[in-house]
Amino acid sequence: MLVHYNDERRAVLKGTEHKGNNIKGPTIGGPFSLIDMEHHLVTERNFRGNWVLLYFGYTSSPDVGPAEVQKMAEAVDILESKQNLKVMPVFVTIDPQRDCPSQLRAYLREFDQRIVGLTGPINAIRQMAQEYRVFFKKVEEEGSDYLVESSHNMLCNRYLLDPNMEILKCFGVEYDAEQLSEAILREVKKVI
Q: Domain containing 164 — which CATH number?
């Protein structure tokens, strides 16, 4: 986890310009090819033209996951109803073995009809997670059950992407829905 934390502190968000000092660090974000809840192939190109709030999680998360998805849904609702700003919430599973399209649809509809759920082959999920510096690992338990260890509690578990699919900001678990919506609005106003 310390390596992941240090990696995020050095991370250079795509689309970020650095004048003067030449900053070196890993670039966050990149292309992906996954499956949505209707079994359609989805790439980053499908989201171009939209503000996107991207979250990595899994439907069997016992505590952090549901609270974070609820927070995302509430923040998006605040932005749309109070600020007339549409932000597309996107949930990418880090447990594709259990989170098939129908499971994602059933789970996400409990929170908000607008949330787009993405899944796919484990290699595609792992590739996207690496691009976005999201750590996860399957931890075997007795029998056929398992847990998913992840970087939910790290500095960044949500990404705001602009209409060009460039990351503007990362948000951690410390934001409540109101704070998250205010922070998103501030970032959007910097661009438009």
A: 3.40.30.10
